[in-house]
Design a protein that fits this description.
It is built from 15 helices and 18 strands. By secondary structure, the protein is an alpha/beta fold. The strands form three sheets. Strands 1, 2, 5, 6, 7, 8, 16 and 17 form an eight-stranded mixed sheet that branches. Strands 4-3-11-12-13-10-14 form a seven-stranded mixed sheet. Helix 1 packs parallel to helix 4 (95-106), helix 1 runs parallel beside helix 9 and helix 9 runs antiparallel to helix 10. The longest helix has 29 residues, at 314-342.
């Protein structure tokens, strides 16, 4: 029976990127997935941390399909919007392409083996430690493999986590159904821009992909999901055309494939590791996709876990992995939960006032000098939001100390 350093169950973003990192360190890895590749999967699509792809050596190939570099973001309320630049560009890859590129890269390392269309049926144990897996191919042939470590990268409904009885914390029930589809022929903006529509308590997402192809998404009320799925395409398009100017822009647009949807994503952290095992990606942490962090989170976890599994003191390094994982993911998790729970339909007065203010330069002339104060006061129940905005503002040159000095010198402003 062959012995591996690491067996990874799940070969998409988290699993394949972990295999690449371990392969770069000369580890022997078996990467297992029940799917065949290339193939699609449910996704947040939003890839804003392209430095991960660069470090893995796949950025150029991922972008080779002609993915547009998205450097702006626009948020609509009613028929008005605010728009601004982003500190780094974002790409929106299809998962069948992204996952396949990562898997092919992993296979370039001598120590990495891949078994597609293989399902893991159980874990192998020895004196309380996980020591391998039993897997089965599509013909029903079973095989046992041993390893020093087994990593569950098998998604939000992870079988590995279930068999380990990995405990959950920070748990929230799924909050909103999400649906999306790939469309061709939608009239684009002049520059590639992520567009977010806050409309009647729902969220609309417009993600530019390659030229002529876009991903449209909707996060809807739970009560609307059952009716939506009776005729997904017609219901989805009807709802999307309610968003500002989208009926005109979608004229003549064609859906590629079908509308993909889920009742909602589970929201939780899971125990990160134990004797002979670890969890990564959605298997270790899952949240509502509205903030588009899922893919970036998966890469971050796999990089941290690879560092731990190649340490001289693996046990101590795994505890550091857990701490770093939670420290880096908890703020985004809390912001996401707060965002979705606070969504509601705007009142007529709120929409009217926003639209008036958005079109009035005299209002912004008065507001901009005190924006930091307004933001701090209006987000005092969620200081994480204030902190995250300031952190991003720093990439555009914001300096909080200089702002404090300016106020002291002009106390009556």
């Amino acid at each position: 029976m062959k012995q591996y350093d690491v067996v990874i169950v799940g070969a998409r973003v988290a699993g394949s990127s972990l295999a690449i990192r371990l392969g770069q360190q000369g580890k022997s890895v078996l990467l297992i997935d029940k799917a065949s590749f290339p193939s699609d999967t449910l996704s947040t699509h939003h890839m804003s941390h392209t430095d991960y792809l660069e470090q893995l050596g796949v950025l150029e190939e991922v972008e080779a399909t002609g993915l547009r570099k998205i450097e702006r973001m626009r948020t609509y309320i009613g028929s008005a919007f605010v728009e601004g630049p982003r500190p780094n560009y974002t790409i929106i890859p299809r998962r069948d392409h992204l996952d396949y590129v990562l898997l092919q890269k992993a296979m370039q390392y001598d120590g990495v083996e891949v078994r597609e269309q293989h399902s893991v049926k159980s874990l192998l144990w020895d004196d309380g430690h996980v020591v391998g897996v039993e897997m089965e191919n599509k013909k029903g042939q079973q095989e046992q493999v041993h390893s020093s470590w087994v990593v569950g990268a098998d998604g939000k409904h992870s079988n590995i986590a279930k068999w380990l009885n990995a405990s959950e914390y920070e748990t929230h029930e799924p909050l909103r159904p999400v649906l999306y589809g790939y469309y061709r022929g939608i009239e684009p903006l002049s520059k590639p821009t992520t567009e977010i529509f806050l409309h009647e308590g729902r969220i609309g997402f417009y993600f530019p992909m390659e030229e002529g192809r876009d991903c449209l998404g909707l996060e809807i009320h739970p009560s609307e999901f059952k009716e939506m799925m009776k005729d997904p395409k017609a219901q989805f398009e009807a709802m999307y055309k309610e968003l500002y100017d989208m009926e005109r822009r979608m004229e003549g647009a064609e859906l590629e494939g079908k509308i993909i949807g889920t009742k909602g994503m589970p929201n939780h952290f899971r125990e990160a590791y134990g004797p002979g095992w670890a969890l990564v990606g959605d298997a270790g942490h899952s949240k509502d996709p509205s903030t588009g962090l899922g893919i970036n989170d998966a890469f971050m976890q796999s990089f941290l876990l690879a560092e731990a599994l190649t340490s001289e003191d693996v046990e101590g390094a795994l505890e550091a992995f857990r701490v770093k994982r939670d420290e880096q993911l908890l703020p985004g998790f809390q912001l996401t939960i707060d965002y979705i729970k606070s969504l509601r339909e705007w009142t007529m007065n709120e929409v009217a006032l926003f639209q008036t203010m958005a079109a009035n330069p005299m209002v912004w002339n008065k507001l901009v000098p005190r924006l930091a104060d307004h933001l701090k006061e209006d987000t005092k129940e969620m200081p994480l939001l204030y902190g995250s905005v300031l952190m991003e503002a720093e990439s555009f040159g914001y300096q909080e100390k200089q702002e404090s000095v300016r106020r002291l010198s002009k106390p009556n402003e």
